[in-house]
Amino acid sequence: DDQTDGDAGLAVKTRTRTQRPPLYKVLLLNDDYTPMEFVVHILERFFGLTHAQAFEIMLVVHKKGVAVVGVFSHEVAETKVAQVMDFARRHQHPLQCTMEKE
Ligand code: TYC
């Protein structure tokens, strides 16, 4: 039988470390030109935040220079960053969004 000491019938558990996938913080950076309402719109549209939550995070970025807007798997974080950067570029705003391993 599995996981016993010899065969005295005593079960011995083997501890196995749980594999967790690495998570990535998506960060929004402040700048002097992107309109506040544009940032709020991005946070609602791509991060599923309410208007109030989006406004709150936008203000943190505006005042502190940077804020974490969400934590995701590598693939989802990469997609969010690309969506934000593409949307900002298409509207000719210099908004920057990056990701870093948690
Ligand atoms: N600082 C910008 C302004 O005063 C607003 C802003 C907030 C820009 C958050 C970028 O990630 C940002 N219009």
From TrEMBL:
The keyword Glycosyltransferase does not apply. It comes from the Bacteria. InterPro entries: ClpS, ClpS_core, Ribosomal_bL12_C/ClpS-like. The keyword Hydrolase applies. GO terms for molecular function: peptidase activity. Residues 20-98 form the Adaptor protein ClpS core domain. It holds the Pfam family ClpS. Keywords: Hydrolase, Protease. GO terms for biological process: protein catabolic process; proteolysis. Involved in the modulation of the specificity of the ClpAP-mediated ATP-dependent protein degradation. Binds to the N-terminal domain of the chaperone ClpA. Belongs to the ClpS family. This is ATP-dependent Clp protease adapter protein ClpS. It comes from Aliiruegeria haliotis.
